[in-house]
Amino acid sequence: MPKITVEIPQHLLDDMDEHVGDDKKFVNRSDAIRTSIRKMLDIMDEIDARHGRKINERQEEDE
């Protein structure tokens, strides 16, 4: 899995850290960030579909 480096404002890290750790929603920061990215991509797919911009896999294969 590739590693990336990003700059994140401290206040966002502080807020995220409230949900990271033992007996919390995410096991670590990486898990929280990956989950957030997946959720954002799902939301973007839904928006694209509503606007007729979503291309399904079959259309991509035909091109």
Automatic annotation (TrEMBL):
InterPro entries: Arc_rbn_hlx_hlx, Ribbon_hlx_hlx
GO annotation (BP), single: regulation of DNA-templated transcription
Xref: Gene3D superfamilies: Met repressor-like
SUPFAM superfamilies recorded: Ribbon-helix-helix (SSF47598)
Name by which UniProt lists this protein: CopG family transcriptional regulator
